[in-house]
Amino acid sequence: MVGASSSWSRALVQISPSTFSVIGIAIGIGVSVLGAAWGIYITGSILIGAIKAPRITSKNLIR
Fold it and tell me: Per the UniProt record, which residue ranges are transmembrane (predicted)?
């Protein structure tokens, strides 16, 4: 077990800090895009429901 942990630590030390920053930025952008897509999907579903059921007003969409 000691050899396995030392190989991981050696691998992490040899990776460039720029690589870590690029990976972090990529994950951040990816999660942001997924969140935006989810929000658009939910809002679109609500708007389609509002068109089919006119009793739902736009005032109810803003919380």
Answer: 20-51
**Whole-number Å distance between alpha carbons of 30 and 7:** 29
Count the alpha carbons within 13 Å of 54 in the hemisphere toward its beta carbon.
0
Q: Report yes or no on whether pTM surpasses 0.85.
A: no
Contacts of 61 (CB under 8 A, 6+ apart): 43, 46, 47, 50
Burial code (b: 16+ CB inside 10 Å, e: under 16) for 16-32 equals eeeeeeeeeeeeeeeee
Say if CB 58 and CB 50 are below 8 A apart. yes
